[in-house]
User: Which sequence fits this backbone?
């Protein structure tokens, strides 16, 4: 069974596989720099409540598997990660002093969903039907009292 998360009226399991490359696919992700970029991305994910399930930094690209809450779109999360991480990379790792024109990531990215299988979806539907029938039964039991009668 998948590890679905629960909110008050929602069960969700939104996992994405993301690949991001540095601008011009330069081999910039190595050594100490590699560890620092990983820590920056972990911290930014934590700030938005995104769980970084797996991550692998190669010299010329990054693979990440993220669990993103349904209140955020994947485009928003990737924009946040790329936008904020470039500032931290330039200021803390590369030690640059400029205020404008930080470039590290290109405009695009690759993303794919990590989906559920059909058996899991069918099980959820059956459980939901059972739960709805139970609520309907409780509602009918409570509404059988006469109109003018009030409990004491």
Assistant:
């Amino acid at each position: 069974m998948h590890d679905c998360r629960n909110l008050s009226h929602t069960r969700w399991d939104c996992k994405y596989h993301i690949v991001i490359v540095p601008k011009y696919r330069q081999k910039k992700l190595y050594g100490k720099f590699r560890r620092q970029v990983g820590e920056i991305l972990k911290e930014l994910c934590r700030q938005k409540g995104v769980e970084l399930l797996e991550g692998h930094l190669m010299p010329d690209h990054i693979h990440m598997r993220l669990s993103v809450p349904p209140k955020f779109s994947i485009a928003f999360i990737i924009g946040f990660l790329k936008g904020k991480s470039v500032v931290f990379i330039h200021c803390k790792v590369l030690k640059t002093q400029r205020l404008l024109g930080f470039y590290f990531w290109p405009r695009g990215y690759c993303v794919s969903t990590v989906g559920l299988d059909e058996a899991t979806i069918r099980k959820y539907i059956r459980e939901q039907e059972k739960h709805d029938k139970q609520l309907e039964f409780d509602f009918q039991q409570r509404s059988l009292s006469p109109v003018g009668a009030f409990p004491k």
Observations:
- The two ends are 47 Å apart (CA to CA).
- The chain is about 40% helix and 20% strand.
